[in-house]
Design brief:
Elements (H helix, E strand, L loop, with lengths): L11 H6 L10 E8 L5 E2 L7 E3 L1 H13 L4 E7 L18 H12 L4 E6 L12 E3 L2 E3 H17 L4 E4 L6 H11 L6 E8 L6 H7 L19 H13 L3 E5 L5 H10 L4 E5 L1 H12 L5 H15 L3 E4 L2 H9 L1
Parallel strand pairs: 1-3, 1-4, 1-12, 4-5, 5-8, 8-9, 9-10, 10-11, 11-12
Antiparallel strand pairs: 2-3, 6-7
The structure holds ligand PBG.
C-alpha cells in the first residue's frame, strides 16, 4: 500500500498541522434573555439559561468577556400588559432593550451588542408581524420594524439583526439607519430562517409562542434549499452586512450553499432546541457534553459559518481553553 491516510493522523501534533477547521470564542455570539425584574428566572427547557435582570445581565456579560466571548444578542421577555396587536413597545425608547443597551454600552465599550428585530416578544398575537384577520401584514410590519431598529441604534446597538422574515425589511432598515446618521450600525440578516420546531424552548423562555397558527407564511419551508439563493440576492442588494442561516445543525447543507453563494460573512444560529437536545442527553449521562458540543460547533464552522450564535458560547469558550 503506497497510500496510507492514517500517517496523517498518527499523533496530536501531526493532526494539528493539517486541521482544516478551528473554533474560537471570538467566533461566538452569546444570546441572553432579559426581563424587567431584579431576580433571575431559570428556563426549564434550557438548563443553564436564565431570564436576567439588569444586574445579573451585567455580571453575565462581564464573565463572557473574561471568557473571550465579545458579542451578545439580547432577547426580551415582555410583560403581558405591554404586549399589543401593533407591538408598539418594540420602539419605546424607554423600553427594556434600550435600557439594557444603554447600560451595557456605557459599562463595556468593547462589547459587540446585537439586537433582535421582530415583533413577537411585543405582540399580543405572538407573531413576528402585525396580524389582521389571521394574516401577517408585510409592509405595515416593516414600518414598525424600522422604528424598532432606529430605537435600538439610538440606544447603542452595534449590529441590528432582523429575525422576522418580512420581505424588504433589510433595505428599509438600512435606508432609515443611514438617513438618521447611523451609517456605522451593521445589519445581520436572518436570511434563511426556517419555520422550525427547534425554536420551542426559546418560545417558552420568552412566552412568545404564536397565539394561533404557525409562522409558515413568513419563515421558510424546511424542505427547501434553493429559496435561500433568492433570499441571499435580496439581502445583498438591500445592504445586509452579514447573512444568517437558522437553525444550524440540521441545516449544514444550507450553510454550505450560502457560503458558496456569497462573499459576505455567514453566521449560523445553533438554536434553543439544539441546545436542549444536547443538554438533555448530557444530563442523562448519554453523551459527553464538552465533546459533543465542540464537535457540533466545529461541524457548523466546517459547513461554512464564520460566526455562530450559541447558548453554549460561554461554556464552550471555557472548554476550548483545555
Ligand atoms: C423570533 C425569534 C425566534 C428565535 C430567535 N428570534 C423564534 C421564532 O422565530 O419563533 C429562535 C431562537 C432559538 O430557538 O434559539 N423572531
Amino acid at each position: 500500500m503506497r497510500q496510507r491516510p492514517r500517517r496523517n493522523r498518527k499523533s496530536a501534533s501531526i493532526r494539528a498541522f493539517h486541521r482544516e477547521t478551528t473554533i474560537e470564542p471570538g467566533h461566538f455570539v452569546y444570546p441572553l434573555f432579559v426581563h424587567d425584574r431584579a431576580e433571575k428566572h431559570a428556563i426549564e427547557s434550557m438548563p443553564g439559561c436564565y431570564r436576567l435582570g439588569l444586574e445579573d445581565l451585567k455580571r453575565e456579560v462581564e464573565g463572557a468577556l473574561a471568557d473571550g466571548v465579545g458579542a451578545v444578542v439580547l432577547f426580551p421577555a415582555i410583560h403581558d400588559s405591554l404586549k399589543s396587536s401593533d407591538g408598539k413597545e418594540a420602539h419605546n425608547p424607554e423600553g427594556l432593550i434600550p435600557r439594557c443597551l444603554r447600560a451595557l454600552s456605557d459599562q463595556f465599550p468593547e462589547l459587540v451588542l446585537c439586537t433582535d428585530v421582530a415583533l413577537d416578544p411585543y405582540s399580543s398575537d405572538g407573531h413576528d408581524g402585525i396580524v389582521s384577520e389571521g394574516r401577517i401584514l408585510n409592509d405595515e410590519t416593516v414600518e414598525v420594524l424600522v422604528k424598532q431598529a432606529l430605537t435600538q441604534a439610538e440606544a447603542g446597538a452595534d449590529i441590528i439583526a432582523p429575525s422576522d422574515m418580512m420581505d424588504g425589511r433589510v433595505g428599509a432598515i438600512r435606508d432609515a439607519l443611514d438617513a438618521a446618521g447611523h451609517t456605522e450600525v451593521s445589519i445581520l440578516s436572518y436570511t434563511a430562517k426556517y419555520a422550525s420546531a427547534f425554536y420551542g424552548p426559546f418560545r417558552d423562555a420568552l412566552q412568545s409562542a404564536p397565539k394561533f397558527g404557525d409562522k409558515k407564511t413568513y419563515q421558510m419551508d424546511p424542505a427547501n434549499a434553493r429559496e435561500t439563493l433568492r433570499e441571499i440576492q435580496l439581502d445583498e442588494a438591500e445592504g445586509a452586512d452579514i447573512l444568517m442561516v437558522k437553525p444550524a445543525g440540521p441545516y449544514l447543507d444550507v450553510i454550505r450553499l450560502m457560503r458558496e453563494a456569497t462573499a459576505l460573512p455567514v453566521a449560523a444560529y445553533q438554536v434553543s432546541g439544539e441546545y436542549a437536545m444536547l443538554k438533555a442527553a448530557a444530563k442523562n449521562g448519554w453523551l459527553d457534553e464538552p465533546q459533543v458540543v465542540l464537535e457540533s460547533l466545529t461541524a457548523i464552522r466546517r459547513a461554512g459559518a464564520d460566526i455562530i450564535f450559541t447558548y453554549y458560547a460561554r461554556q464552550a469558550a471555557r472548554w476550548l481553553r483545555y
